[in-house]
Amino acid sequence: MTSHLNVDNLEIRYGDTAVEPAITGINLEIMQGEFVTVIGPSGCGKSTLLHAMGGMLAPASGGIYLDGTELTRPDPRQAAFVFQDYSLFPWKKVVDNVAMGLRFAGEDKKTALEKAAAELAFVGLGDKADKYPGELSGGMQQRVAVARALALKPKFLLMDEPFGALDEQTRRSLGQELTKILHDAGQSVVLITHSLEEAIFWADRIIVMKAGPGEVSKEIIVDEPWPRSLEFMTSERFENLRAELFHRIQPTTVSEAK
Amino acid sequence: MDTNTIVLARGRRPAIALNASALARKATLYRTALVLGFFVLWELLANIGAIDERSASKPTAILAAFGDMFAGNAETYQALSDTLYVLVMAFIIAVAIGMPLGLALALNATVRAAYMSIVIYLLGIPKTIFLPLFVLFFGLGNGSAIAFGAVLGFLQIAVNVVAGVDSIEPRFFRVTSAFGGSRWHSFVHVILPGAAPAIFAGLWHGVRNAFVGVLIAQMFVSNIGIGYLVKVYTNNFQIDNAMVLIIISAVAVILLGTLWELSEARLTKWKSTVRS
Ligand SMILES: Nc1ncnc2c1ncn2[C@@H]1O[C@H](COP(=O)(O)OP(=O)(O)OP(=O)(O)O)[C@@H](O)[C@H]1O
Ligand SMILES: [Mg+2]
């Protein structure tokens, strides 16, 4: 059976119910194996949406459903996070960081470490298992964070601007490599980004959000076969998509859309 | 930056790279020279009468007293072992109170709101003024010294534990919960290791403060231990003997500190890998 994640008429409020919701009226369905990107102006509620999808925030109304079951607390085997700041524990060796979620889930140490080592090899860091995160470059640390999430074999991988702290070169090459291995593995991905390029390159489907309150303003299908090469980025198709997206997320267009 | 290389920029000369071990050797040499110079100067000034030998003693006399005190003087050994016992007891009690207290203050908002100000207040006031009360409660023997040392130690340990836990970035708790970790997981995988460097520092400050407390108590309200002997020797103008005990105490603290640093570096090795 293929899994699917449903966001059903979701509204999230921070604190007092009198204030405007951070996001409201969000309806989405994400299928297993699909790559979905979310883009929108700063503060429109992208992180809020992602955190809610991972069971980290309680909805004011509506809900998140995984194969029909409501997700009410974090369950990394269903949906696992990759954060922008990596958030690797500096006091744990790389392999122990990757094994962390498995240990929390109650797996014995030996099995967890074996799985962690395999996952590190999968992201190309098999030789860094015994290093501390502080000894790795930013790009490598983010690979570790991806391995940590993948170690739990999550149905959905939730990434919140995972490459925001990397330089453009690393960002592109790591993106190309990761999309390939994740896609080959049949992984479902929800990726939040500020980058137009990334939003297109990583997407089967782009969710465009607008602010005040945070809502979905448009969904754009990117009908480009996988695996994608960096040449895709210089193609005319890509340019057209980029132009469309660029206009979509301008503040003027947002107010017109209202 | 290569960790083996320290770059020194001095004046308008180009920056020079100095090997770390060469730097360490040079620093040791300089330090030894200063200490030796100090003792030589002391000896010289005492010999020409610029300082009073009867009240300030001099290195050669202290060296001679050192031999006398350890050859067949049971009193010295007794004082040393008594003091060690009192210090160890004080430290154990300080840890047993300071660690749980620190954790409770750090982790429970109500406990912190209720008691943190008291701990800070107690830490700030000069506690020697309360010494007579300790005598009333614990008598003139080891009891007072242990209790006073423990009080000075546990306050230090508690505030360091609080500071250590506070220094942990919230994102580590967020990631723990995102990966399905329980409160217990947070405690074991985040709080303890994250606060470990500060807790370690706290234990060190605790032991030093406990030692200070023990010596003060022995000096003023007890008739046992190094502190008491130092007082007796000084009152009897046996300055050489008092100096021997003072130097032993100082050297013991320095050795303990070095040992502590080495074990800390081993136990929290990850700390050196963190870039800000
Ligand atoms: N913990 C919080 N408490 C209160 N309000 C919050 C909190 N987190 C986010 N918000 C508010 O909710 C709204 C959406 O924030 P969110 O972080 O989801 O936006 P975002 O699209 O991820 O922004 P960015 O692109 O800058 O990361 C903002 O108005 C923000 O101020
Ligand atoms: Mg965000």
Task: Reconstruct the topology from this structure.
The complex is a heterodimer of chains A (258) and B (276).
Chain A: E1 4-12, E2 23-31, E3 35-39, H1 46-53, E4 61-66, E5 69-70, E6 79-82, H2 94-104, H3 109-122, H4 138-150, E7 156-160, H5 168-184, E8 188-192, H6 196-201, E9 205-210, E10 215-221, H7 236-248, H8 251-257
Parallel strand pairs in A: 3-8, 3-9, 6-7, 7-8
Antiparallel strand pairs in A: 1-2, 1-4, 4-5, 9-10
Helix pairs in contact in A: 2-3, 2-4, 3-4
Chain B: E1 5-8, E2 16-19, H1 20-47, H2 53-56, H3 59-70, H4 74-107, H5 109-124, H6 131-138, H7 142-166, H8 170-178, H9 183-221, H10 225-235, H11 239-267
Helix pairs in contact in B: 3-11, 4-5, 4-7, 4-9, 4-10, 5-7, 6-7, 7-9, 9-10, 9-11, 10-11
The structure holds adenosine-5'-triphosphate and magnesium ion (MG).
The site of adenosine-5'-triphosphate has 10 residues of chain A, from helix 1.
Characterization of the model:
The complex is a heterodimer of chains A (258) and B (276). Chain A is an alpha/beta fold. Chain A has helices at 46-53, 94-104, 109-122, 138-150, 168-184, 196-201, 236-248, 251-257; strands spanning 4-12, 23-31, 35-39, 61-66, 69-70, 79-82, 156-160, 188-192, 205-210, 215-221. Chain A has 8 helices and 10 strands. Chain A has a 6-stranded mixed β-sheet with strand order 6-7-8-3-9-10, sandwiched between helices. In chain A, a hairpin with a 4-residue loop joins strand 9 (205-210) and strand 10. The relative contact order of chain A is 0.18. Chain B is mainly alpha-helical and 276 residues long. Chain B is built from 11 helices and 2 strands, in the order E-E-H-H-H-H-H-H-H-H-H-H-H. In chain B, helix 4 (74-107) crosses helix 10, helix 5 (109-124) packs across helix 7 and helix 6 (131-138) crosses helix 7 (142-166). Chain B starts with a strand and ends in a 9-residue tail after the last helix. Chains A and B meet through helix 2 of A and helix 8 and helix 9 of B. The complex binds adenosine-5'-triphosphate and magnesium ion. Residues 14, 22, 42-48, 214 of chain A line the site of adenosine-5'-triphosphate. Magnesium ion (MG) binds at residues 46-47 of chain A.
